[in-house]
Amino acid sequence: MRPKLRAVRIHPITQNGQQGFLLEDPLRLVDKLLFVPQALAPALALMDGTRDARGIQVGLQLRHGMYVPTQVIEDLITHLDQALMLENERFYRAQAEALATYRAAAYRPPYHVNAVYPADPDALRAMLQDYLSKVEALPPRPKGVQGVISPHIDYQRGGSIYAGVWSYVRDAVQAAELVILLGTDHNGDLGTVTLTRQHYATPLGVLPTARDVVDALVAAIGEEEAFKEELHHRSEHSIELALVWLHYMRDATPVPVVPILLGSFAHFVAGEADPQRDEKLSAVVTILRDVMKDRRTLVVAAADLAHVGPAFGDPHPLEVTDRARVRQADEALLAAIGEGDPERFFREIAAVGDRYRICGLPPIYLLLRLLEGHTGVSTGYAQCPADAHNGSLVSICGVALT
What CATH number matches the domain at 112-401, 3.40.830.10, 3.30.1780.10, 3.30.43.10, 1.10.3720.10? Predict the structure, then answer.
């Protein structure tokens, strides 16, 4: 067997006094995390499909001067295989079965209930209303809101920012005849635009997917491109957490939704391509703008901003000056958003090589493309703790565009 490790999430961790890494399957095909001791971590990098256990053993000796018994490597391979973390026939079969189950269901059930918000409708209403009751004074509500930037962080940390922006745009939410919801695909490949024909459910009921709009987008970008990562919709939280607020602010009245997950812009940031000239993004913008002419449409970007500190790979915990620099960089992004300028927004991020890891880059950029020239009003900004020692942060904002 020549194991090839899939793209998995790797979290540094100390378990029972032993340093190592916790491996997590982003597709959640198996509800299982795998701990790999730090000493064995170099073996993972050698699992590229070209070596068997003996070859990995030799590679560790040559590259790292380490001797690891073949049996230990074989055991690691077995555990990875059982957790569906290897790219092989077993994984492909499980992936296909999961996708078939997802598509056959009447709707996509809420995935993050009881982890981020309660499954019970009354408990959910009470929770969200509590956040809303604490909203401080906001700018006068304008008419004609067409765009919303909402966080996608958990409600426990971002509740006040969620409440501020969704309260501010309540009238537009209730008047909408169609909602285009753009979410970060945290596991998406470069430049992916991932659609689904599946409806989304919240504890308040089912929000129907506007399949006619999905079909128009599929005709423009191709079936394979549109659905090759569709399974990501099953567990991705970005769209789900925004839809719960949307549904609540509509008093549980359904509205057609176009749920779109957007993959990484790393290749654009690196200068390998230009998002302004990307044919797929341009086709999506053309189709959606055409749809927006005939229906009262609200465009929502479910997007967080900076991700910095040791929790995200930075070497040192953040100091006060670091936090101030992050805020200054975020303010430059908010200024570009306020002007409705997608190219300035992108340039601010690309100019520093996305050093602050703006995970909301794709959905905010596409929202600004769709609503180019529309001005934005900030309804809130926060820097949320991202580790137990408060040495890392995630920054979030709320913005309404008119």
Answer: 3.40.830.10
